[in-house]
TrEMBL record, chain A:
InterPro entries: Sec-1-like_dom1, Sec-1-like_dom3a, Sec1-like, Sec1-like_dom2, Sec1-like_sf, VPS33_dom3b
Matches recorded under Gene3D superfamilies: 1.25.40.850, 3.40.50.1910, 3.40.50.2060, Syntaxin Binding Protein 1, Chain A, domain 2
Protein's recorded name: Vacuolar protein sorting-associated protein 33B
Species of the source: Pinctada imbricata (Atlantic pearl-oyster)
Pfam family, any one: Sec1
GO biological process, one term: vesicle-mediated transport
Family designation: Belongs to the STXBP/unc-18/SEC1 family.
UniProtKB/TrEMBL annotation, chain B:
This protein's name: Vacuolar protein sorting-associated protein 16 homolog
Domain Vps16 N-terminal: from-to ranges: 465-857
Any one cellular-component term (Gene Ontology): lysosomal membrane
Keywords assigned by UniProt, alphabetized: Coiled coil
Keyword check for Heme: no
Coiled-coil features, chain-numbered ranges: 1121-1170
One BP annotation, GO: intracellular protein transport
Quaternary organization: Core component of at least two putative endosomal tethering complexes, the homotypic fusion and vacuole protein sorting (HOPS) complex and the class C core vacuole/endosome tethering (CORVET) complex. Their common core is composed of the class C Vps proteins VPS11, VPS16, VPS18 and VPS33A, which in HOPS further associates with VPS39 and VPS41 and in CORVET with VPS8 and TGFBRAP1. Interacts with RAB5C. Interacts with STX17, MON1B. Associates with adapter protein complex 3 (AP-3) and clathrin:AP-3 complexes.
Organism (species): Pinctada imbricata
All copies of domain Vps16 C-terminal, residue ranges: 1002-1309
GO MF annotations, alphabetized: actin binding
Length: 607, 1323
């Protein structure tokens, strides 16, 4: 299928970066003189992406520290700036700092800059601690961080837990603000589809913030045609699956943070680690990021050959002029490519090594049969064996959760036995983890009446996972392709992102919604979904035969907003979808996750 | 200065010097008494750069009886290298019936010592009015050649004979004479006047070319002969031409006409032509002369001289204009303009001389002279300015003289200013003196002078008229007590009984408030107690202090606002005096009681009455006292006789002894400057002492010789003290310099930050010190860049090329110049001056490429706003300085206070203040005002009088016109009064909503809070419904104690932060149980609160779960707590609680797990004791693993049994542990166990995992064939694996190995491929 990419560029999100830099400079320059800066550890990487240390240094920052808990900070300059998320833990650390100084009668000026906004709660905490008068408080709006041409992220890794587990909706405000921000850049988005309760809430919040007074938007100027907001709890299955695209594997194996990946000595082949920025600007990466892993190494070796050829060109250079041209123009680029290529090949080797470890194949096999719904018994045994073999906790838990999700709960007997063994292996405190997973609806126990047990207590949550929902959705949306031969090299089916075993539920849903321009006709699907759906369609797509020809043209650019994070596999799947359907997807997310980070965020770490 | 006499005062300064050093100075002083003769001569000789004398000035005065004043000034300017360039000589002789002789000779020396020229002058004046006057000026060119000559003759006889001559000679670049001016007047009424002039022009290379000879002979009633010979010498000594001129004027109308034109060219060719024509008739004598003398280097005409005389019968009018232009290449060099206007019966002379000479044509000097002489008084006024610059070639202006006369009938005011400025690098050399003379009969002369002083000259003050009072003719200030607010605030007048006749003592006083322009704002009859004093607060509220210490606060429209007292003690003993002052906190009030104690309130918005310390031994009222605010403390300075005491409210007093040179019995008046820094004291002997407010520094003492204290003693800004004695105002500067003004009606003085407002019956004036920057620009002869730019701009708009020259002079300081002009514009109050300065700034900006226009734009905006609010309709006479201090928002607030909403909004719009800070805020005020009007006006008037219809009409009238909405509110309001309460609220709310709509930034919450203040809570809530921003709604709702609504609104808003705000407040204000109940039905609030507790207060969270009977969560809390406990007992305790709670929650599984954990803990504790090794916090698995590693197999076994660990898992655990410690024999032994739950491949796995391939291979041998391939791969024996697979003929196994192959195993891959094809072939 010919890729019909529209040529119109994405809305320029670099503005977000400039705006933030301006704001930050303004705030810092207001604080005259030299100062130290403490940066919330969660803000380190985003700040690096958005501004960089040079900007700080240029604005009178002397030393940069990471703000971590239980940290003593009594040295340093008389002026101190804290750049932090408005979270209680961070505020607590700051109060400790200030109180420690006070204890030593050390007078200092403290400035707290909350990103993206100051919360009354935090100020209240400062007030309770009696240091509200000692600090000056301000805020800088930083919402979406452009990680790549088509990826925007809020970089709020704790978002999933606070919203879905703790039911704290504070950060929905930030999401809503970010949507308003995008709309102010790219004009009002005519069509909005909300999948899930929080998605709906977010959209309501957007409307409330804009107020009723806003004039009728001019949709002809809209650069983004549709916005799909989707709750993570609609689809837990996809993030729990092991990723097999190159980008996904990199994240699973090395962890990509804010677009940066760090390769250890085993990859670089040298003593020091290497930090690489993974964006579409890296030609080699751009070429392989969306590929199935089996298809990567071949390309890389080909690339190595052609690079060598390019290098060899220098031997054939005739004139001095050519030589000069080669050195000044190509050599640098080639060298950079060569370095990057070496890293990618090194990374591939590492991944291969891991894949070749005994259990991985079986692990993947089990995962796929869970998704397919086959050989249940054997798979449970496999999980059991993982527990017995003391396989590391998170992958085991991943598989365990996947079992529950695909079977709509684990049968009571298996549940109890697995859980007991798990607790024996990994400690009693994991009881609370199970409790959390239960609350989220990720790992539940089937009870005799055939209904899964509702979470105990009166916690109002969106968990009302209906029986057989996965199985039904799987059937209706054709998540597991029937044909065996999925071409992994030239994919024609979205399922290629999971080796042809499964198409991401979230992406399939998005495909359907965009296809039907709403949810009518999708009732038999939506009834199996967690939470509600909602749509507001202002402009119909002209290219559709049935739609009226009047009205503004609908932009083919679609923004997908994941509340609670999305995986690289989903991004790849959407890119694939865009390629075959002619959409241009912009993926916004609260953070980029994978199965491990997702589970890690809900594992109880009380010790 | 004598009374009713004439005072003249002149000063002359002449400076010249190439490198800026002043060379000479001319000082001239005239003192003329009535009936006396004073002569004053001064000679100044200025030396050239290398010491040679350059010129000499001779000056003679002769003054005759009858008020005749003569004034001469001579200025000699030196050329670039010491050569004099020009000289002007001027002589006046005016006598009524007197004879004066005046001779002057000036000889100027050339650069190399050779005499260059000679000046001969002869005066002969006969009795009966004949005067002769000759002046010769010979100027030498740079290389010794004479350049020009100026001749001037005046003859003024009694009965109207005037002679006036002007000669201008301009020199060319290399000494070549370029032009010549000859002028002769002969005007005689029945008399004869002869006038001859000769001009000799020199050739190009410096040789003297000509000579001028002039002879006058004038007889009485006789015949005059006049011969002139001009001989011009050629370049090489040959004579070039000759000029011959003959006049013959006979009595009774003879006219002679001669024309001679002799022009000499460089090689003998004629250079120019001179034409002269006289026509004089009896009873109408008209002379018309035109001279054109042009000489160019090659014979081309260079200039032209035109002269016209017109004399009418019965009046003599002379009009001469001379234009002599010469330039090296024909460019004009200078211009001379002369105008005479003579009236019969009054003598008016008006001369202007402009002499310009410069090697490259730049103007060197300018002379402006204006005479105004009126009958009944003789005023003579002369100004001469001669400037010479060594580098005059640069063409910059060197001096400027400005002089203005204003004379009133019946009084003579003479005002002279002279400024003489020296060359380009010279600092200003001159000084300006200003004198006022006020004549008899109460004549007040008030002029506007902008006089700028020299480098170290003192400041000069200026009085400016702000307004003609709107109350003109209605109000006589004599009958009122006056209080005016600072910063152009309104004026309150109190009809004072004590000032009028005591007939109507019983009537209550009337209070009237006017704007600063005298327009009435409000009036009322006072109906409370006796007013001791009143004044304005900084919020423009009017404060009245009553005898009983009660202070009543009114707004400027005299609507009552509130009242407060000055304490019980003050009430009991009566207040006798009060003082309203600006303290650091706002506005304060101090009162003096009849017991001579002072009570003070520092801030009328936060009333705390403080009692000041007692002044020791004070038995009678202090003669004067004042409240001083310094260092954030208010203290009172009290005068007790000759002693001064500084008292504070801390009970401290301090005797103060200012340094004063005279004896003091009593201080009868005190005045404190606006900024509280300076103090003026007035003693009983009339001495004014001026010093710092801490009495440490003395600036000066000044004896007024007035025994009685002034009516008012004030400060004009921080500069001068002003004492008002009846209608005489004395301005005293810090250097004891003083000025006296008198007024023809009573005035009131109000101190401002930068000046003093003088409120009179008809006028409102402003006295202020001229700002430095203004001074720099307008100072005569100022070389400041700003002054140059201003001059350039003026020239530019005149279309003169000089503009460019001026600009070029200040090229590198242009930015400074622009800033100066902008700054100076700010200090100007008159808009035409502002415009002129701003125009200069714009002009200057054109030459700057990167000048930041912000300050300019800002200044234009500010001035526009200032001019607008200064308009008499608004009547806020603010200056720029005051506005800077007051700030724009406050000004807008003040406009709002005056209900000038429209203006306020327009100003906001003009200044582009964002809507939510500006216009919307004002709209909100307007709405608040509406609410207030509803409650105040209507409740008062409608309800009390029950005249609803009229009341509505009145309300309509009171409203802003054309506002239907307003009347509707009132109509509904009236309905409400007769009907139900709730109708009203809704309507009012609705109406406001309709009016305001959803204008962005309108704060309904502000309006609501206003309503709340009026006690209309319901209306407030209703109004809040319109508020789109929950963040604004919620705090107000909380203020109204509508907590539940607030919480709902917060939740609706979706902003959890807001929810927290309410929640945390609720938590504080409510009993805990109630609070829990309140939030349990609000899931969002509930989960937020839990979230908060999780971080801040875990105990509270548990309490909450307990209240909820949420056992599951309680148990979870217990579990978490158990891990946080240090002591094992506590931990067990918590776990026990958890277990109980899990049971209650019917979560038996969890309960059992908890129980197991308790057991495990107990075991681990025992193990720790037994093995002295950490076990606690390990999982069961880890515990057993550790035991196995330590080879405590027995204990491990018992644990296995106790916790029912499945066989399979236990085995895995065990072999793993054994492999880990490398106990291969034990492992081997173990592998031989019968009934093994694991396959033998598990052993391979653990061995491979721990890196012992050899050991692993042992087990591989025992592995079942179908597992063998996998095991071999695990061990790393891929080759063997391939072989085994091939043996098994299993393609699947081959593929498995293939998938494990790495790029390095190319060989193997080939092999496998081969085998696969073999297998396929076999099939």
């Amino acid at each position: 299928m010919a890729a019909s990419m529209t040529s119109s560029p994405h809305p320029d999100f670099q503005y977000l970066k400039q705006k933030f830099c301006q704001d930050l400079e303004q705030h810092l320059s207001k604080i005259k003189g030299k100062k130290d800066i403490f940066i919330d550890h969660e803000l380190m990487k985003p700040l690096d992406r958005m501004a960089g240390a040079a900007l700080l240094k240029n604005n009178g920052v002397d030393k940069i520290f990471k703000l971590v808990s239980n940290q003593m900070a009594t040295d340093g300059l008389e002026q101190r700036v804290y750049l932090t998320r408005p979270r209680m833990d961070s505020v607590k650390v700051i109060t400790e700092h200030v109180n420690a100084d006070k204890g030593q009668n050390h007078k200092r000026k403290y400035h707290i800059i909350f990103v993206p906004r100051r919360l009354h709660l935090c100020e209240m905490m400062l007030e309770y601690e009696g240091i509200h008068g000692d600090v000056t408080i301000s805020e800088i709006e930083m919402h979406l961080i452009p990680l790549d041409r088509d990826i925007l992220s809020l970089e709020l890794p704790f978002f999933f837990r606070t919203l879905f587990l703790d039911q704290d909706e504070t950060w929905l405000h930030t999401v809503a603000r970010s949507i308003i921000g995008v709309q102010s850049l790219a004009n009002t988005i005519p069509n909005v589809y909300c999948i899930g309760r929080r998605a709906r809430m977010t959209f309501d919040l957007v409307n409330m913030m804009l107020g009723d007074a806003r004039p009728d938007p001019d949709y002809t100027k809209s650069e983004i045609g549709s916005l799909v907001i989707i709750d993570r709890d609609v689809d837990y299955v996809t993030p729990l699956c092991s990723q097999v695209t190159y980008e996904g594997l990199l994240d699973d194996s090395f962890g990509i943070k804010c677009g940066f990946i760090e390769f250890g000595p085993e990859v670089t082949g040298k003593d020091q680690t290497a930090k690489l920025l993974l964006t579409s600007d890296d030609q080699i990466f751009e070429e392989v990021r969306n590929r199935h892993f089996s298809n990567v190494l071949g390309y890389l070796s080909e690339k190595a050959k052609s690079l060598q050829q390019d290098f060899d060109k220098r031997h054939t250079l005739q004139s001095v002029g050519d030589m000069k041209n080669f050195v000044s123009k190509e050599l640098r680029g080639l060298k950079q490519q060569k370095t990057n290529l070496a890293y990618h090949i090194g990374a591939c080797e590492q991944i291969l090594m891991k894949k070749n470890k005994d259990d991985f194949e079986e692990y993947l096999q089990t995962e796929h049969s869970f998704l397919e719904g086959s050989s249940l018994r054997e798979n449970i045994t496999f999980v059991e064996e993982l527990v017995q073999k003391q396989h590391s906790m998170i992958p085991t838990l991943k598989l365990f959760s996947l079992l529950s999700l695909t079977q709509d709960g684990v049968s009571s007997r298996d549940y109890k036995s697995l859980k007991t063994q798990f607790l024996h292996s990994h400690g009693f405190e994991q009881m609370l983890t199970f409790n959390n997973l239960n609350k989220l609806g990720m790992l539940t126990e089937q009870d005799q009446s055939g209904q899964i047990s509702t979470p105990i207590g009166k916690m109002p949550s969106g968990v009302n996972l209906r029986r057989s929902s996965y199985r039904n959705l799987c059937k209706k949306l054709n998540l597991v392709p029937k044909t065996e031969d999925i071409d992994l090299k030239r994919p024609t089916n979205m399922a290629y992102v999971f080796s042809g075993a499964y198409s991401p539920l979230s992406c399939k849903l998005i495909e359907q919604v965009l296809n039907k321009e709403g949810f009518s006709g999708l009732e038999d699907i939506t009834k199996y979904l967690t939470g509600d759906v909602y749509s507001r369609v202002e402009v119909r797509d002209h290219s559709r035969p049935k739609s009226a020809a009047a009205g503004p043209k609908l932009s083919k650019t679609v923004m997908v907003y994941f509340l609670g994070g999305c995986t690289y596999s989903e991004i790849t799947a959407l890119r694939f979808l865009g390629r075959i359907k002619g959409y241009r997807f912009i993926i916004s997310t609260t953070s980029i996750i994978n199965g491990s980070t997702l589970l890690n965020s809900v594992v109880e770490k009380s010790r | 200065m004598g009374w009713g006499g004439v005072v003249d005062l002149d000063k002359f300064t002449v400076a010249a010097g190439p490198y800026g050093g002043p060379i000479g100075k001319i000082l001239k002083l005239y003192t003329m008494g009535w009936g006396g003769v004073v002569d004053l001569d001064k000679f100044t000789v200025a030396a050239g750069p290398y010491g040679g004398p350059i010129g000499k000035i001779l000056k003679l005065y002769t003054m005759g009886w009858g008020g005749v004043v003569d004034l001469y000034k001579f200025t000699v300017a030196a050329g670039p290298y010491g050569g004099p360039i020009g000289k002007m000589l001027k002589l006046y002789t005016m006598g009524w019936g007197g004879v004066y002789d005046l001779d002057k000779f000036t000889v100027a020396a050339g650069p190399y010592g050779g005499p260059i020229g000679k000046i001969l002058k002869l005066y002969t004046m006969g009795w009966g009015g004949v005067y002769d006057l000759d002046k010769f000026t010979v100027a030498a060119g740079p290389y010794g050649g004479p350049i020009g000559k100026i001749l001037k003759l005046y003859t003024m006889g009694w009965g109207g004979v005037y002679d006036l001559d002007k000669f201008t000679v301009a020199a060319g670049p290399y000494g070549g004479p370029i032009g010549k001016i000859l002028k002769l007047y002969t005007i005689g009424w029945g008399g004869e006047v002869d006038l001859d002039k000769f001009t000799v022009a020199a050739g190009p290379y410096g040789g003297p070319i000509g000579k001028i000879l002039k002879l006058y002979t004038m007889g009485w009633g006789g015949v005059y002969d006049l011969d002139k010979f001009t001989v011009a010498a050629g370049p090489y000594g040959g004579p070039i031409g000759k000029i011959l001129k003959l006049y013959t004027i006979g009595w009774g109308g003879e006219v002679d006409l001669d024309k001679f034109t002799v022009a000499a060219g460089p090689y003998g060719g004629p250079i120019g032509k001179i034409l002269k024509l006289y026509t004089m008739g009896w009873g109408g004598v008209v002379d018309l002369d035109k001279f054109t003398v042009a000489a160019g280097p090659y014979g081309g005409p260079i200039g032209k001289i035109l002269k016209l005389y017109t004399m009418g019968w019965g009046g003599v009018v002379d009009l001469d204009k001379f234009t002599v232009a010469a330039g090296p290449y024909g460019g004009p060099i200078g211009k001379i303009l002369k105008l005479y206007t003579m009236r019969r019966g009054s003598v008016v002379d008006l001369d202007k001389f402009t002499v310009a000479a410069g090697p490259y044509g730049g103007p060197i000097g300018k002379i402006l002279k204006l005479y105004t002489v009126r009958r009944g008084g003789v005023v003579a006024l002369d100004k001469f300015t001669v400037a010479a610059g060594p580098y005059a070639c640069c063409g910059g202006p060197i001096g400027k003289i400005l002089k203005l006369y204003t004379m009133r009938r019946g009084g003579v005011v003479a005002l002279d200013k002279f400024t003489v400025a020296a060359g380009p690098y010279g600092g200003p050399i001159g000084k300006i003196l200003k004198l006022y003379t006020m004549g008899w009969g109460g004549v007040v002369a008030l002029d506007k002078f902008t006089v700028a002083a020299g480098p170290y000259g003192g400041p000069i003050v200026k009085i400016l008229k702000l307004y003609t009072m709107g109350w003109g003719g209605v109000v006589d200030l004599d009958k009122f007590t006056v209080a005016a607010g600072p910063y152009g605030g309104p004026i309150a007048l109190l009809r004072d009984d004590s000032k009028t006749a005591r007939v109507q003592v019983s009537t209550k006083p009337i209070v009237t408030v006017y704007t600063a322009a005298g327009n009435q704002l409000g009036q009322m009859r006072w109906n409370s107690g006796n007013i001791i004093g009143f004044g304005w607060s900084h919020m423009e509220d009017l404060l009245f202090v009553q005898e009983d210490g009660v202070v009543l606060v009114y707004d400027m429209f005299l609507n009552f606002k509130r009242t407060f007292g000055m304490g019980q003690e003050a009430k009991d003993v009566k207040v006798t005096d009060c003082s309203i002052f600006n303290s650091y906190q706002g506005t304060g009030i101090a009162v003096l009681t009849s017991t001579f104690r002072i009570f003070i309130v520092n801030n009328i918005d936060d009333i705390r009455v403080r009692r000041m310390a007692e002044v020791p031994g004070l038995q009678s009222a202090p003669s004067s006292w004042v409240v001083i605010n310094l260092d954030r403390q208010s203290r009172a300075l009290v005068a007790k006789g000759s002693e001064l005491f500084l008292i504070d409210h801390g009970g401290q007093y301090e005797a103060q002894t200012p340094q004063i040179s005279v004896d003091v019995n009593e201080y009868t008046a005190m005045a404190l400057s606006f900024n509280n820094r300076y103090l003026a004291l007035f003693t009983d002997k009339g001495v004014i002492w001026i010093g710092s407010s801490d009495l440490q520094k003395v600036y000066c003492e000044f004896n007024t010789k007035s025994p009685s204290p002034p009516q008012q003693l004030s400060w004009c800004g921080g500069g001068a003290v002003v004492a008002l004695f009846d209608q005489l105002m004395l301005v005293i500067g810090p250097d004891r310099d003083w000025i006296k003004y008198s007024f023809d009606s009573p005035v009131h003085l109000t101190q401002e930050e930068d000046g003093l407002r003088i409120i009179g019956n008809y006028q409102h004036e402003f006295l202020y010190r001229i700002a430095d920057v203004t001074d720099k620009i307008f100072r005569i002869g100022s070389m400041e860049p700003g002054a140059m730019l201003y001059e350039a701009s003026k020239e530019f708009y005149k279309g003169s090329q000089k503009a460019d020259e001026y600009i070029r002079m200040i090229k590198d300081r242009l930015e400074h110049a622009v800033s100066q002009c902008i700054e100076a514009a700010g200090y100007e109050i008159e808009s035409d001056k502002q415009k002129a300065l701003l125009r200069a700034a714009t002009f200057g900006k054109c030459f700057l490429t990167d000048y930041n226009p912000e300050s300019f734009v800002n200044m234009c905006q500010m001035l526009r706003v200032l001019n607008q609010v200064r308009d008499h309709i608004i009547g806020i006479p603010l200056t720029y300085v005051q506005l800077e201090h007051l700030s724009m928002p406050v000004l807008i607030d003040r406009l709002v206070l005056r209900k000038l909403f429209y203006y306020a909004i327009r100003i906001c719009q003009y200044l582009k203040i964002p809507d939510d800070e500006g216009a919307s805020r004002i709209l909100a005020h307007w709405a608040c005002y509406k609410v207030c009007v509803c409650s105040w006006v209507l409740i008062d008037r409608l309800v009390l009088r029950k005249l609803f219809y009229y009341a509505i009409r009145i309300c309509q009238y009171l409203k802003i016109p054309d506002d239907e909405g307003a009347s509707r509110i009132l109509a509904h309001w009236a309905c409400y009064k007769v009907q139900k309460k709730d109708v009203d609220d809704e309507t009012v709310a609705k109406d406001i909503q309709q009016k305001l709509g959803d204008t962005p930034g309108v704060s309904y919450s502000d309006i609501a809070s206003q309503a709340l203040e009026c006690g209309r809570t319901d209306l407030a809530i209703r109004l809040l419904d319109f508020e789109p921003r929950a963040a604004q709604q919620v705090p107000l709702l909380m203020k109204m104690k509508k907590d539940s609504i607030a919480l709902n609104k917060a939740i609706e808003s979706g902003d959890t932060d807001l929810v927290y705000t309410v929640l945390l407040r609720l938590k504080e204000s409510m009993p805990q149980g109630e609070f829990f109940m309140a939030i349990r039905n609000m899931p969002i609030a509930y989960s937020l609160f839990i979230q908060y507790c999780r971080h801040q207060n875990r105990k509270l969270m548990q309490d909450l779960y307990y209240q909820e009977d949420n056992f599951q969560e309680q148990a979870n809390c217990n579990v978490i707590n158990s891990f946080n406990e240090e002591r094992l007992e506590d931990r067990q305790e918590e776990l026990k609680l958890a277990q109980e709670n899990y049971t209650k929650a019917r979560n038996e599984f969890a309960a059992r797990q908890t129980e197991e954990q308790m057991k495990l803990l107990k075991q681990q504790q025992a193990l720790e004791e037994q093995f002295n090794q950490p076990f606690i916090n390990l999982s069961l698995h880890q515990t057993i693993h550790r035991l196995t590693v330590n080879a405590n197999h027995r204990v491990a076994e018992s644990l296995r049994k106790e916790f029912k660990v499945p066989e399979r898992r236990f085995w895995w655990l065990k072999i793993d542990a054994l492999a880990e410690i490398g106990d291969w024999t034990e492992l081997e032994k173990f592998s031989r166990t019968k009934k093994m739950p694991l396959g033998i491949e598990a052993f391979v796995t653990v061995c491979a995992k721990n890196g012992n391939m050899r050991e692993a291979m042992k087990y591989v041998a025992r592995v079942a064939p179908e597992q063998k391939v996998k095991c071999l791969v695990k061990v790393g024996e891929k080759k063997a694996a391939v072989d085994a697979a091939f043996e098994n003929r299993s393609e699947e196994e081959l593929n498995y190995v293939l998938s494990k192959c790495q790029p390095s195993d190319r060989q193997l891959v080939e092999t496998i491929r081969g085998m696969k094809s073999q297998l396929a072939a076999r099939r």
